[in-house]
Amino acid sequence: MSWIHSVFFLCLTFRWCFAGESSPEVTDDGAPMEKTEQEALYSAIQGFVGDSWNGSDLYPDPCGWTPIQGVSCDLYDDLWYVTELTLGLVHENSLSCATSLKIKPQLFKLKHLKSLTFFNCFTLPITISKEDWINLVSNLEALEFRSNPGLIGELPEAIGSLTKLKSLVVLENGFNGKLPTSLCNLSSLKRLVLAGNFFTGTVPDCFNGFKDLLILDLSRNSFSGTLPLSIGDMVSLLKLDVSNNQFEGKLPQEIGFLKNLTLLDLRNNRISGELFENVEKIQSLTDLVLSGNPMGNSGDDMMGIKWENMGNLVVLDLSKMGLRGEIPFGLTKLKRLRFLGLNDNNLTGAVPSKKLETLPCLGALYIHGNNLSGELRFSGRFYEKMGTRFKASRNPNLCQYIVSDSQKYVGLKPCVVEKKKKGTLVIQQTWSNLKKEEESSSSMGVMVTRHVSSKGFMWVLLLEFSLIVVLYYY
Fold first, then answer.
1. 3-state helix, strand, coil in the chain (%, to 5)
2. Which SUPFAM superfamilies match (predicted)?
3. 100 found inside a domain
4. CATH classification at residue 338
5. How does the average pLDDT of the chain come out, rounded?
6. How far from the centroid of its chain's Cα atoms is residue 165's Cα?
7. Within this chain, do residues 437 and 332 fall inside the same structural domain, yes or no?
8. Global pTM?
């Protein structure tokens, strides 16, 4: 074969290779988008970004070679249809919503829409339509309203008809009022987030059918009443967050059935009654936050809890609960613990300093605002490790044992330092006096206590000198 034929053959080969790498979007026979679907998409987006937006000119092939940020498509019967639509400035090149927007009915004509998200779109007060949602029943699997302060009014009852939903996120909007009971129909949900709104009233007790739910977040609302007993039926639940509400009453016994739960956050409610009888059964827990609930008023202390059975705990916050009793020794067995909050309770007794210091992961310890007593005997290295993440102040009967000038002062009075010599002689001096003694040879008011044993009785002779006294006892 001549070199001319060889070059010609190579050219044909490269042409075939490049042609084979071409994407279907740039070929003449690429799949088209159904015309009514395309028009519905343009009109729906135009309602959010403004009438001046001309989608047909800017994005003539929105599912092909001129895609719209926030729009995803899929093929059905060799035609492109919209499957995901995100409205709002999620990314820098996303389409931002206009201040004055309107929800056009064409939005609900997208036949194969599976995911619909509104992010920071609604800034001025608006209520979303209660109709038209029925058109999305057969396909919609994810519906999210995130950071839309202008979305007010009650959550539409019609949302409860979207029985294919696996994710419903209503996060940080202006919704208020009671939850629609139709939410009980959404038994296919894996994630239900209603946090950061203004919802009120009781939560429907209808979770018995939510076998696949993994995340339930009702935090930062104004829900009241007791926690639903059917919570215990959500056997797959991993995260339960009902913090910062007005829930009251006892913690349901059924909560102990949640064997897969890793996070339980009940902080800042009015939950009372028995504290841990149910919770300690959930050995999968990594985060247990119960602070700000009056659970300590039941009279139970912390000593009866088998904390060592909860060895997976990483975060334990029991602050501001009115708890009584001593700090349980079982807490010193939690080797994975990173955060321990026991502050602002009525705890008494000594602090197991040496045992707590051996916890390898502990990075924050708060025991301030209690009635703890005795000596705090953490090492200087422990204080350096903790920094500002350790607080022990406001314990009137607790003092800090100081062994060097470099040791961190944590807001407690210094303990009395005892120096023992041979026999039974004990010299007691305060830390401040020891400091002064080292700096000056002048008289410093040293307190001397001598124990004298006579006929089985111990006599204490207390002598006070105005000069430094050096005692030798043999």
1. 25, 30, 50
2. L domain-like
3. no
4. 3.80.10.10
5. 83
6. 24
7. no
8. 0.82
Q: What is the pLDDT of residues 337-371, one digit of tens each?
A: 999 999 999 999 999 999 999 999 999 999 999 99
Residues 320 and 343 in one domain: yes
Distance CA 435, CA 445 (A): 13
DSSP, collapsed to helix, strand or coil, labels residue 357 as helix
Same structural domain for residues 401 and 316? yes
Q: How far is CA 68 from the centre of its chain?
A: 34
Taking residues 182-209, report their average pLDDT: 96
Rounded CA-CA distance 102/268 in Å is: 38
Report pLDDT digits (tens) over 7-46. 444 444 444 344 443 333 333 346 899 999 999 999 999 9
- What pLDDT sits at residue 409? 75
Regarding whether 363 and 310 lie in a shared domain, the answer is yes
Cα angle: 208, vertex 212, 218; to 5 degrees: 70
Q: Which of 374, 395, 415 lies at the terminal end of a domain, its last residue?
A: 415
Which of 376, 397, 415 is the C-terminal boundary of a domain?
415
DSSP string, 266-279: --SSEEES--STTG
Q: Same domain, yes or no, for 353 and 309? A: yes
What letter represents residue 12's amino acid? L
Report the number of distinct structural domains present in the chain. Answer: 2
| Residues of the domain holding 429 | 417-464
Per-residue confidence at 446, pLDDT binned at 50, 70, 90?
Answer: very low
Given pLDDT bands bounded at 50, 70 and 90, which one contains residue 299? low
Q: What is the CA radius of gyration of the chain?
A: 34
Quote the CA–CA distance of 452 and 446 in Å, as a whole number: 19
What is the pLDDT, as a whole number, of residue 418?
57
Whether the Cβ atoms of residue 272 and residue 249 lie closer than 8 Å to each other: yes
In a domain, 52, yes or no: no
